[in-house]
């Protein structure tokens, strides 16, 4: 089942995001087989990261919760908020 994980950074956390980026990429790289899409949310300037969004296939909500609990950005305290929602893809990339 697809789940959207929507994460908003703490306003003061740009340096923390940069410090943890390598661990984040390594962690996500180990889960690419289940990832539908993902990337940073950016400010209207198109470059400043303000959060992240992942759409990923999990067996259930508990697995999505476990995934984000282990995610390095989250473990480091980068996020002000994390929301997990089940998702039904009606239009998908081909």
Strand and helix layout:
Blueprint: E1 2-9, H1 14-29, E2 35-42, E3 49-57, H2 61-70, H3 72-75, E4 79-87
Antiparallel strand pairs: 1-3, 1-4, 2-3
Integer average pLDDT: 96
Task: Give the neighbour order of strands across the main sheet.
Answer: 2-3-1-4
**Approximate shape:** globular
Unreliable spans: none
Computed over alpha carbons, the radius of gyration is 13 Å
How would you explain this protein's 3D organization?
The two termini are 19 Å apart. The radius of gyration is 13 Å and the shape is globular. It has helices at residues 14-29, 61-70, 72-75, and strands at residues 2-9, 35-42, 49-57, 79-87. The mean pLDDT is 96. By secondary structure, it is α+β, with helices and mostly antiparallel strands. The protein is built from three helices and four strands; from the N terminus they run βαββααβ. A four-stranded antiparallel beta sheet has the order 2-3-1-4, covered by helices on one side.
Keywords:
globular
Summarize this entry quickly:
This protein has 94 residues and is of the alpha+beta class. The chain is built from 3 helices and 4 strands. The longest helix is centred in the N-terminal third of the chain and has 16 residues, at 14-29.
């Amino acid at each position: 089942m697809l789940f959207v994980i929507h994460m908003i950074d703490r306003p003061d956390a740009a340096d923390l995001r940069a410090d943890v980026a390598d661990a984040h990429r390594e962690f996500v790289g180990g889960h690419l087989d289940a990832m539908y899409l993902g990337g940073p949310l950016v400010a209207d300037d198109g470059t400043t990261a303000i959060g992240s969004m992942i759409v990923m296939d999990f067996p259930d909500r508990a697995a999505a919760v476990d995934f984000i609990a282990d995610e390095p950005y989250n473990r480091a305290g980068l996020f002000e908020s994390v929301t997990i929602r089940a998702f039904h893809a009606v239009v998908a990339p081909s």
